[in-house]
Amino acid sequence: xxxxxxxxxxxxxxxxxxxxxxxxxxxxxxxxxxxxxxxxxxxxxxxxxxxxxxxxxxxxxxxxxxxxxxxxxxxxxxxxxxxxxxxxxxxxxxxxxxxxxxxxxxxxxxxxxxxxxxxxxxxxxxxxxxxxxxxxxxxxxxxxxxxxxxxxxxxxxxxxxxxxxxxxxxxxxxxxxxxxxxxxxxxxxxxxxxxxxxxxxxxxxxxxxxxxxxxxxxxxxxxxxxxxxxxxxxxxxxxxxxxxxxxxxxxxxxxxxxxxxxxxxxxxxxxxxxxxxxxxxxxxxxxxxxxxxxxxxxxxxxxxxxxxxxxxxxxxxxxxxxxxxxxxxxxxxxxxxxxxxxxxxxxxxxxxxxxxxxxxxxxxxxxxxxxxxxxxxxxxxxxxxxxxxxxxxxxxxx
Length: 398
What we know:
Helix content: 40-55%
Shape: globular
CATH architecture: Orthogonal Bundle
Largest sheet: 5 strands, mixed
Order of helices and strands: HHEEHEHHHHEHHHHHHHHHEEEEHHEE
Number of helices: 18
Radius of gyration: 21 Å
CATH class: Mainly Alpha
Mean pLDDT: 90
Low-confidence stretches: none
């Protein structure tokens, strides 16, 4: 298998046939020099949980882009984000941020999530049709993360274009030079904005997430200014892109399985199970990367030290050795650990908020517009991305 196999139009539209081929090739498949890929649930889960499988973000940049690329602003900024680091630095940063990004803070957002969903629906409910991506799935998480960070919603919305350009650099497959240049410019736009916000917030601490990051302390240690800015950008981007794509993917999955959609409408209490199954079925996050810090045995094979391993979460979530009829959306499926949020010490810090947002988005939409129909299910335009999966538009009427 080659990187080019993961960047074809047919793959972007439907990656799952290629994932079937990937699993058939074996538990670990060569992808390039010093790099492997796996789509087997057991292997992916084991490597996500194995602390010997760490992160060396700048080395992965060098492998994909060459030695000089690692000095570019976008890669330097990402390298300071805590999810790209290993213990003990990662342990310190995650511990500090967990104090700020806690369950109580997330629960405060529940009412905001539902009220935001209702207000967005109010804005288009009298129209003939709506683009649910542009008018619902995108603005909902943006408004929620803006509230968490206490930044003006209009500012957060304006930064949307920069965010969309920036996230492309998180793709596992290397970007062409023009897109990489755009990603650098986008990161610098985000950095300039949040440096100013963080500097201003130091003089006026509140109860928002940025204020908490500025004030948290553990054993006499606090976050540095660069750490605060880089990780605020991380929260903003992650809260913006992953959830909005997942809202769209979940709606597509539901409307392509009308019997499950009807069952959910009859019994809204099944919403948490429905959301979890949609996240398994067609996750927004399709791929994560780890590097072997020493030789690791898994799946009857050895991952040599310094090997990059691409963990295909989307393939693992459809592994028939783990899930019966994995291509079927089934809310009655026995619960299984969700790989879509990663695992081990790098498990997504914002997964509670993401699940809450998905429940609010789907539950409110189906309750308010029970006769909703998706008009472009047979002609969807998927983003040309490997790591983040989602559609450009989702046209609906009722």
